[in-house]
Structure formats: C-alpha cells, structure tokens
Sequence to fold (239 residues):
Amino acid sequence: MKYFYKHQCSAMRLAVVALPLFFMSLMFPVDAIAHGVTEGDKGFIQESSGIMILPFIYLGAKHMITGYDHLLFLVGVIFFLYRFKDVGIYVSLFALGHTLTLMFGTLMQISVNAFLIDAIIGFSIVYKGLDNLGAFKQWFGFQPDTRIATMVFGLFHGFGLATKILDYQVSADGLVINLIAFNVGVEIGQFLALSVILIVMGFWRRSESFSRQAYTAQVLLMTAGFLLTGYQLTGFFIA
Fold:
C-alpha cells in the first residue's frame, strides 16, 4: 500500500482533476436520473392496490441491483474494509438509515425535491472518495466518524426513494406491508450486489497492482460523484 499512501498528499490534486467534470455536467439539461424506475415499473406502482408482497420484494431488489448511485457509494464504503465484521457493520448502518427515511418519508408524506436529494447522494460518493484518501485528516486535521457519515448518507438515500414513491402516488391500501416487502427486496438486492463486489474485490486485492490502482479507483469514484451531482443540480435549476 506504499504507493497509495504516498498519493494521499495529492488529495487536493484529485479534486482539481474531477471538479471540471462537475462544471461540465452543469451544461447539459437532464432529468433526475438517480432513483428512477422503468416506465413499466412506474405504471405498476401507480396502478397497484392491496397487499402485493412478492412484486414489491422484486421491485426492491431490482432497485438496489440497478441503483448505480447506491452501489458506487457502497463500493467506496467497503473499498478498504477487509473483515466481514466491518463490512456487516457499515452496510447495516447504511441499510438502517435507508430504511428509516424510506418508511418515515413515505408514510408521513414528506416530499423533498428529488433533484436536490439526488445531488446530495452524488456528493456522498465524492465524500467517500475523499475519505478513502484521508483528505479530511490532511485538510482539516481530523477524521470524521465514517460510521456516522455512512448512516447519515443512508438517510438521504432513503429520502430519495421515498420522494419517488410519493411522486408515483402509490395506493394507501396495503402500503405499510408493501413498503416492508420493498425494503426486504432492497436488502436482498444489496446482499446479492455486495456478494459479487466482494468476490471481485477479493481477487483484485490479491493482485500486485491493487496498491497502485487504488488511487485511480478513488479518482474514478469521485468523478462519477461529481457528474451525478452536476446532472441533478442542472435538473433542479432548469425545472
């Protein structure tokens, strides 16, 4: 890991490289792309009524497996976690935050602007890339508690999905059971996605090139986060 830690002093340089992409993304008008669903799924949610456990489990799993914003953040979270115990703790904190705001936001009908929420979610990916580089310790002299940060961003991820569900005006008939089923599906999808990611990461970590490529991986992670944030802010100002 010597190569990687030698580049921790370049955290500001990484931000300088990625920031132009953020401003470039502001030039292109787009819809809110994170937390989107297919037209078929959207129609099903709007027309569904009554308790539908299996369909909502499927929708929850599909949302997580295809939710690139969730997956990018989780990749950043587990990137340097080598023990399954640590992976379980961080993923559970993220899932807890996600579940709380999804249930609370939907049941209490608290709607937040989808563009702003998704912009924050994009920023969470940038944050995790910087955190993995030790940038906060270098810049500000302290290291934020990564467990608290993981749960806080999980709260925002859940609000993003709750906002979409409210926009689709899902039926109140069977809503609580369907939301629980959806959350079960999210956890199933998260488990499946993380299983694949951890297998790939396991092989990658055994390679001699991992320590050299880890820094580049954080650059790419931050770049994706800046792009997502810029797209969503563009949508917010245009809308």
Summary: Residues 124 and 153 are 6 Å apart (CA to CA). The chain has eleven helices and no strands.
